[in-house]
Amino acid sequence: MCAQKTDSIYEVKKLTNEKERVEKKLMELNSEQLKNQGSQHTSTATINRLNTQINGMQSDMEVVILAKKEMEKIVEQQKNELTDAERKSTEYYH
Questions:
Q1: Gyration radius (Cα) of the chain, Å
Q2: How far apart are alpha carbons 60 and 67 in whole angstroms?
Q3: How far is Cα 17 from Cα 74, in angstroms, rounded to an integer?
Q4: Which residue among 9, 42, 78, 92 is least packed, with the fewest CB closer than 10 Å?
């Protein structure tokens, strides 16, 4: 009877220790999961922010390209006006 009681106490202690170890591991896994979710959220936010910046930069580039084309038109007009003025000047003095 005493041996059975000792064996039962040993089993209870063994199972209690195992339960505590499993609960500790579960808490560690839950903590790790929360960290990973936070990292994923941070990564997603970073990706969204970078995509927004890229879209803004693309819009800026489109504006710059349009402005460049307009400036090229103005330069061409100025060249034509200068050429016309030189031609008229040459015709006038000759």
A1: 40
A2: 10
A3: 85
A4: 92
